[in-house]
Write a structure and sequence with these properties.
Blueprint: E1 4-5, E2 10-11, E3 14-20, H1 30-46, E4 49-56, E5 60-67, H2 73-91, H3 93-98, E6 110-113, H4 120-128
Antiparallel strand pairs: 1-2, 3-5, 3-6, 4-5
Helix pairs in contact: 1-2
Amino acid sequence: MTVSKAYHCAYTIHYHIVFPVKYHKALLNEEVTKYIKEIAQEIESRYFMELEKIGCDTNHIHLLCGADPKYAPGALVRVFKSVTAKKVFKQFPTIKKELWGGEFWSDGYYVATVGEAGNWKVVEAYVQNQGTTPETVQLRLL
């Protein structure tokens, strides 16, 4: 991990952020996950965050990211959720029918800081391995 520099500071800040799909629906299939990762590259180039790893299970996403300390973790989540939701609904219109509230992501999220000495490699491996073990199939109402 390297030290990043801003105008008036130097920092090494990394977050592990997790948030679910609305209603914990299993909508993050391989195609949607691939598209979200493409969107993430756009977000990284346009906004103030460095996305280091992204891992997806069928109903939630893990981000390992860094950012300038002037941006709160909630701001990172807000940008990522809003941009990805808008683009996913546009690319996959059938997904919007699965979510009767018109939102892709759930309101809440989990965030933790990741230290460079103690738990960086453990968290990095955990995020990278998301979605590699099969989960039970979600039942759908008819």
